[in-house]
Amino acid sequence: MISALKIGRSIIKAFGYLTGYYNLLCYFIKNISLLGRAPIRSVLYKQLYFTGIEALSKVAAIGILIGIVIITQVINIAGANAVLIGKILIWTVVRELGPLLAAIIIIARSGTAISSELGSMKVNNEADSLRIMGIDPVDYLLVPRIAGITISVFILTFYFQITAVAGGLAFTSVFKGLPFLQNIKGIFSALGLFEVVVSLAKSLVFGLLISTVSCYQGFSVEASITEIPQAATRAVMQSLFLVFIFDGIITLISFA
Question: Which of 44, 125, 215, 233 has the most CB atoms around it within 10 Å of its CB?
Fold first, then answer.
């Protein structure tokens, strides 16, 4: 009986979170034109710098290592086949690992920071101060952050894919003696519009999920400072859960 009550409460709480995420996402879509205002646009630029530009080096390092590992394993298993290498890189890096790993990096690096920052603003009554000045805190604090994170995930996904493919091919050209141009031709022969569209869809969905969850959890903090780390933890865990769920859904749809 007790376990049934706990399960019921968990389901109700999860439904409440999903409803909150949906409402915030709808609000963002309806008010995306606010990004044309200078104060809100300045917050957007700061978010792009923090989430996107400052993460470039980390994304590049992970991308190069992933590309080297994948190509090395392919060569060890199937030999130096440029066409096969190209197909496996497209399937693993472009369609699957690129959007997923870029999203995980953003969640670990920026999801916690955003939820903690917004939670701190709520505890320190900064959001109330904005209301007193006649500024809607959702418009000023959340709309540009959702846009900035979504754009950053989109750009970092393609940046990750480029560094993974280029780094892996450069490694094999130097240490395995495989012609770089031949491998490039294998990549382009395997790359099609469908793979690009799937990667684009995943990166946009992941960006919206991460930004919405992180902002919602941060803004849900009430009066206690002890709620801030709890909100950050929920933001990370729920973002990861939703990203993996939607990654599986999009992958199944693309294979159907």
Answer: 215
pLDDT (tens digit per residue) in 91-143: 778 777 888 888 998 998 888 889 989 888 888 888 888 888 888 888 998 99
Locate tokens 């999203």: which residue? 103
Please name the residues in contact with 173: beta carbons below 8 A apart, sequence gap of 6 or more: 179, 180, 183
**Can you tell me the distance from the alpha carbon of 38 to that of 142, in angstroms, rounded to the nearest whole number?**
15
The region, left, alpha or beta by phi > 0 then psi within -120 to 50, assigned to residue 211 is alpha
Q: What angle do CA 232, 235, 238 make, to 5 degrees?
A: 145
Residue 147: its pLDDT value, please?
A: 94
Contact 161, 93 (CB under 8 A): yes
**Structural tokens at position 47:** 């978010």
Where residue 10 falls (left for φ over 0; alpha for ψ -120 to 50; beta otherwise) is alpha
Contact present, 162 and 61 (Cβ < 8 Å): no
Q: Whole-structure pTM over 0.85, yes or no?
A: yes
Q: Which two tokens stand for residue 246?
A: 């939607």
Per-residue b or e along 204-242, where b marks 16 or more CB atoms closer than 10 Å to that residue's CB: bbbbbbbbbbbbbbbbbbeeeeebbeebbebbbebbbeb
3-state helix, strand, coil in the chain (%, to 5): 90, 0, 10
